[in-house]
Every structure is written in C-alpha cells, then in structure tokens.
Fold this protein.
Amino acid sequence: MRILYAAIDQTVPGTVGGSTHVAAVADGLAALGHEVHVLATPGREPFPALRRVQWTAMSPPLGAKTLRWLKRPAVERVARTFQPDVVIERYYNFGGEAIATGRDLRATTVLEVNAPVIDYPHSTKAIVDKLLLVEPMRRWRESLCAAADLIVTPSANILPPGTPRSKVVELEWGADTARFYPGAAGTAPFQRRAPTVAVFAGAFRTWHGAIDFVAAMRRLEDRGRRDIAAVLIGDGPERPAVQAAAERLERVDWIGAISNAHMPAALTAADIGVAPFDVGAHRPLSLGFYWSPLKIFEYMAAGLPVVAPAVDRLPALVKHEREGILYDPRVPGALADALERLSDVSVRQPMSAAARERAVRDFSWSAHCERLVAAITDAAQRSGRAARS
C-alpha cells in the first residue's frame, strides 16, 4: 500500500511521546513492505533515515495547531503527487485537512485518535461551544469521525456516541523492542548512586505524578532506606514544583529531556520503572484513562518491572505481581512500599523477565503495525476501495 501519514502538529524527531509514535508507526508500516510518506514538523535534527519512508516538512501555520486546516492545499499537492491508497491523519480538534484530501482522492481514510473527541463534563471548551448555540466545534469533530473509514484509538470511550463500533480498532502504543531491551548498549546519562535505581521518564505534567514519586522517595529516606535512588528524565511545566518538593533529598537525580534515541541506555541503567499517574489531577481523565502510556511499554521492553497505580486500564497493561507492582493511590505510603519491595533483587528479577516477554508479545510497534494494517485492509474492503498490497 501507499500510505500518506499526516501528523503536521508533531515534531520529528522530538522528545515527547507523539514524536516517537509517528516515527515508529512510519517505520513499522514500511517494515511490512508498504510505501510511506509522512508530513510532520521538522525537529532540530534531520528526519529519521527509515526504509521506504519519505518525509515532507510541513508545520501548522505560525506554529498554531488551531490553524491546521489552512494546510489543506499543501497536503493535497503532496497527496496528488504521491497518489496514496491510504491516508492516516493524527487527530486534532481543528484538523481534518488530510481526511478531506483522502476522501477527494478516494483513498481509505484513517483517523488516529489519541485524545478525547468528546468533551469532559464542564470543560471550558464545551461551555464556549454551547454559548455559540450551534456547537460548531463539537459538530466539526463529529464530522471528522463520521468521514473516516477507520478510527484507531487506545480507547473507544473517547469517541462520539453513535460511532459505529465496526469502524473502530483499539490499539495500544508500543515500544521498539529491538532498541529497548535489557543490557541495551550506550552510555547512561547518570551515575548509579544506590544499589537500586528507580526511573521516571515523562513530560512533567500534573497527572504524570512525578511529585508523588518524589514524595515516596522522601518517605523512604525517613524510613532510613539509603539503598534506593531516583532518576527523573524529562521536562515540563511541573518540573519546578517537583524539584522544590525534592529539596535536600540526596539520592534524586535530574536529567532533563533527552531524545528517544538515548532512552534505551538510560532505562537499561535502572532497575525499576515508575509511572505514578494521578488521574485526579487532569479533568479530561474523568472520561477514563484514555491514553496509551508509552513510558510503561518502554520500561517493560527494557526489562524493568513497573510501579503504577491500580486504576482504570492500567491493570490490563501491567499484571500485578507478574510484570510489576500496582499500588492503591488512596493508601498513604503505598508507592514507597512498592519501591521498597522491588529493591529485593529476588522479587524483581522474575518480574523483569515477565515484563520483557509481555512487551515483545503485546506491546511492540511491530505488533501495533501488523494489527493496524489488518484493520486498514478490512476498512478498505468494507468501503469498496481495496488498497494495493
């Protein structure tokens, strides 16, 4: 198949999950023998040199995602030259430029939805939309979902009511299990400062829970545990608050944002992967834990047992006592207890092997792309626009 993948609001290469997702899906589809053309915002480094993947630099006008639709003529020019069988668009509220182009060209259209299409209760956006009487934003989003032949999402709960289940495939994100593995080569960006090292990698937003990780480290220090160190990788709006909460903690290191290319070496130098999500800190999560946690899959691929809260979909992604430890976030000290338990190598090692095995089987990008291609093929046949293989 000839696949046009429009993700112009994502910077590639970049340091956030969306950047990794776009590059990994493009590479995974190409590895299956498909010809892929990607539209994305260029990063500071060149686009990845991937097999059978062509890149075109295309950014939202003035860097504003809300103006994405104005790129419709540019998307169409690329599409008419490339003549895709399939057009994949990464969903955004004010998008639709690639879906419209794909329909004009009678290609199979795929909407990749990683954030809620529906509004959470009492959201500012929903209130503004209602004040406009005809709710234009809601109507536009619903029209995008209706126009797509296939919708790919981690959770169908974030799609408009009435979306036909037959055109929805639920797929988790993944990890590059060929790059993320126990003992991956490379130089770690930190020095081990204790026999056990727990790592957090994220964008430092309130719901990522880094501040809870730091609180657990303080609790461990109060218990006299000096054998567990923390490494925090990433950057974002909550980092100053998290750093303030970690003041005078001796065994906490700050790495800052690093590219995904350097992440395997960072994870393989640690022993535990921490994903302390705080779903109560992000109002859209009242719709459910809708996103697919890239950090968890990369932890598992690197052979790190995962520590995460036992909420919503997470127990389906990490089997408690097999691939990690899930704690009750309502219980004070539960996160610290989980870290303390995994400081025991005899407890940790079987979970490490199980986590790696699960990542390879269920959460690799290659598995994601194989399921995606199968879903696209079915959608093309249903629409009567069967794509070339």
Notes: The chain has two domains: 2-174+365-383, 196-362.
